[in-house]
Each structure stands twice: as structure tokens, then as C-alpha cells.
């Protein structure tokens, strides 16, 4: 359909990380986070100290530069990125700059980073610094469903809402007639987004009644596939909209630093704001708010509300970094967005 496509190889099944054993040697530059490495080694039943990976924490440009320097001094033939969105984004960026293939192994279900051809990098102050387009997707993505099931429930909840948002964003972009790629096959892309959205909505309804470990394996497999593969395909071909803008603003305020709010949690807040501020999905606004509120019911929305109220100038400053009216069907002001974020976060707090 267009120049880029999803990974050359995507595998998803229980114990899929066993495929990685052949790459755990000096031929691989292994990029990961400390907790991710612990989970990965536990799944493979191997000692954590048997191999020395490169640990990253912030998805920063500095970390990428250090990895590239290391890769150029070594005989690494590939980059093996293991972990969540930060480790994966850094690993993909290092692979591109080293001109090496990348293999991605997500250890938590939280973002759409594994299959995408983009890396979001930050400066040393954790301010957005660069969106690196790799021109191609990772060579391989290894999704171990048993490993993901062991991940924190909070990440699962955030990943589910974040994935759902991508398809609402795609429909908003279609309504605004602003596609990321000029040669997108509109009918095909819109049908795919709508099918994925409806499938995820049904899965969200299931999850509201059950914990992740209580869901049938088929439902979990569908969640992983739709939120890893189809979200990457959708946002790369069509684009992203207001929910991700809200995430960028709040991350720029420090709300998504290590130990803060997760990507999918802030995107979920932005999704509800989009249904309130834009006419495309206004009829679904109450339903989406209830769904996001129920799934993300343990999030400290009151704390977020307090920070945004106390740091209004910071919110306005961060909003100025982004074109908040990009890819939406009706113009809004920074003041309207600020008020909406506060009002929505206050309402989401009532679902706790």
C-alpha cells in the first residue's frame, strides 16, 4: 500500500522468547531496562548475570549516542531491544544509526512501540527532542504471550486504552481530511480502523468485568495483536490526533517521567477530551468516558488535576510546542483544551 509496512516477521505465541536464545551473544547489542531484563531472564530461566546488556531509562538522545558509539566499537550484527516503549525506541534508533537490523521483544503490554518505524527521543531534561523516522519497521517482533500475561495489570489497562485511542484518532483524521501519507487507501484504512476499534471496544467491555488473567487466551491474543500490529499500521499510514497531543503536553510537564503516569493513561485522558471537544465522536463521549474511567479507575486523576491547576503556565507553554489543531475536525484554543483536561480528569476521578 505504501513504502513502509509492519515487521518482516511478527511472531506471537507462548514461550516465543525462546527464539531469542541464538541472539544472546556478542553479535547482539542488547538494549533493555532493568525490570524488563529481569522478566526476560526469568521467562528464559537463565541467570541475569550470564550476559551484560545495556540498560536505558529515559529514551534520551544521549542514551542513543552512547549505544551507537558502543555498537561501532563492537562486532554487533543486530540490535536486540527488550522491554517497554523507552527501551524499544532507543534500540530501534540505535539500530537505524548503526545500519543494523533490529529485533524487538516487548516485555510489558503498554504501548504501540514494538511494531512501529518511529522512535520518540527526549533531551536530558526529558523534553521531546526528536521524532526519528526509521523508514522501515523492525526486522522482527517477538511477542511472548506468557511473558506479557505476567506483566503489571496497570500496564495492561493503559495499553488497552492507548490502543483504542489510535483508532478513534484515525477516524478523527478522516473526518478532518488530513492523512499522514498522501497515498493512503482511504476506504481500506478507514474500514480497518473501524473494525479494530469495534473489536477493542468489545474486549474493553470484557475487561471491565474480568481481570487480565481471567480473560480467555483468544481475547488476550486479539488485544496484543490489535494493539501492537494494527495500531502501528494505522498511525503510520493515517496519523495521530488530539489524544497524543495531550500526552505530549503532559509529558513535557513531567507527568510521564519515570514513576509517573503511563503513556496509555495520558492518551486515554486525551481521548475523552477529543470526544468532548470535536464533533466526530461527541455522541460516544459519555460511553468513552465511562469506559476509560472504569478501566483506568486506579489512576490518581485527582493528583493530575491538582498539578495541571497549579502549573497552568507550564501547560500553556507545552501546548505552544505542538499544533493542537493538527488533525482535528474543529478548531480549539489552548484555553479550551486546558479547561477540558481539568474537567475530564476531575470526572475520571469519580470512577476510583
Features:
352 residues, alpha/beta, Rossmann fold, Dehydroquinate synthase-like, alpha domain, six-stranded parallel beta sheet, two-stranded antiparallel ribbon, 8 strands
Structural overview:
The protein is of the alpha/beta class and 352 residues long. The chain has two domains: 9-149, 3-Layer(aba) Sandwich (Rossmann fold), CATH 3.40.50.1970; 153-351, Dehydroquinate synthase-like - alpha domain (Dehydroquinate synthase-like, alpha domain, Up-down Bundle). Helices cover 52% and strands 11% of the residues. It is built from 13 helices and eight strands. It has helices spanning 34-44, 61-73, 85-98, 145-149, 153-176, 186-209, 217-237, 242-252, 263-277, 285-295, 301-310, 312-319, 334-348; strands at residues 9-13, 28-32, 54-55, 78-83, 102-106, 118-122, 128-133, 140-144. The chain has a six-stranded parallel β-sheet with strand order 1-8-5-4-2-3. Strand 6 and strand 7 (128-133) form a beta hairpin. The protein is globular. The model has no long low-confidence stretch (mean pLDDT 90).
Describe the secondary-structure layout.
Blueprint (H helix, E strand, L loop, with lengths): L8 E5 L14 E5 L1 H11 L9 E2 L5 H13 L4 E6 L1 H14 L3 E5 L11 E5 L5 E6 L6 E5 H5 L3 H24 L9 H24 L7 H21 L4 H11 L10 H15 L7 H11 L5 H10 L1 H8 L14 H15 L4
Parallel strand pairs: 1-8, 2-3, 2-4, 4-5, 5-8
Antiparallel strand pairs: 6-7
Helix pairs in contact: 2-3, 5-6, 5-7, 5-9, 6-7, 8-9, 9-10, 9-13, 11-13
Amino acid at each position: 500500500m505504501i513504502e513502509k509496512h509492519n515487521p518482516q516477521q511478527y511472531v506471537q505465541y507462548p514461550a516465543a522468547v525462546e527464539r531469542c536464545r541464538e541472539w544472546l551473544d556478542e553479535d547482539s547489542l542488547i538494549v533493555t531496562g532493568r525490570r524488563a531484563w529481569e522478566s526476560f531472564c526469568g521467562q528464559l530461566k537463565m541467570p541475569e548475570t550470564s550476559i551484560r546488556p545495556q540498560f536505558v531509562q529515559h529514551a534520551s538522545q544521549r542514551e542513543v549516542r552512547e549505544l551507537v558509539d558502543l555498537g561501532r566499537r563492537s562486532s554487533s550484527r543486530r540490535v536486540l531491544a527488550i522491554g517497554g516503549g523507552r527501551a524499544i525506541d532507543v534500540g530501534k534508533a540505535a539500530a537505524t544509526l548503526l545500519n543494523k537490523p533490529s529485533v524487538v521483544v516487548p516485555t510489558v503490554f503498554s504501548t504501540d512501540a514494538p511494531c512501529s518505524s518511529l522512535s520518540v527521543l527526549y533531551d536530558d531534561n526529558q523534553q521531546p527532542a526528536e521524532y526519528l523516522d526509521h523508514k522501515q519497521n523492525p526486522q522482527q517482533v517477538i511477542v511472548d504471550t506468557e511473558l506479557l500475561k505476567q506483566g503489571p495489570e496497570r500496564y495492561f489497562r493503559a495499553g488497552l486504552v492507548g490502543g483504542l485511542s489510535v483508532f478513534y484518532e484515525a477516524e478523527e483524521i478522516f473526518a478532518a481530511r488530513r492523512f499522514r501519507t498522501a497515498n493512503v487507501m482511504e476506504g481500506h484504512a478507514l474500514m480497518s480502523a473501524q473494525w479494530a476499534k469495534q473489536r477493542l471496544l468489545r474486549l474493553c467491555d470484557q475487561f471491565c468485568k474480568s481481570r487480565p488473567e481471567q480473560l480467555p487466551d483468544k481475547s488476550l491474543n486479539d488485544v496484543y495483536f490489535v494493539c501492537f500490529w494494527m495500531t502501528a499500521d494505522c498511525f503510520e499510514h493515517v496519523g495521530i490526533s488530539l489524544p497524543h497531543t495531550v500526552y505530549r503536553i503532559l509529558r513535557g510537564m513531567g507527568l510521564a517521567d519515570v514513576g509517573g503516569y503511563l503513556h496509555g493513561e495520558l492518551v486515554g485522558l486525551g481521548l475523552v477530551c477529543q470526544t468532548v471537544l470535536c464533533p466526530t465522536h461527541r455522541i460516544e463521549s459519555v460511553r468513552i468516558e465511562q469506559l476509560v474511567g472504569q478501566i483506568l479507575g486506579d489512576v490518581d486523576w485527582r493528583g493530575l488535576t491538582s498539578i495541571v491547576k497549579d502549573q497552568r503556565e507550564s501547560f500553556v507553554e507545552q501546548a505552544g510546542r505542538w499544533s493542537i489543531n493538527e488533525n482535528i475536525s474543529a478548531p480549539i484554543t489552548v484555553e479550551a483544551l486546558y479547561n477540558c483536561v481539568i474537567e475530564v480528569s476531575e470526572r475520571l476521578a469519580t470512577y476510583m
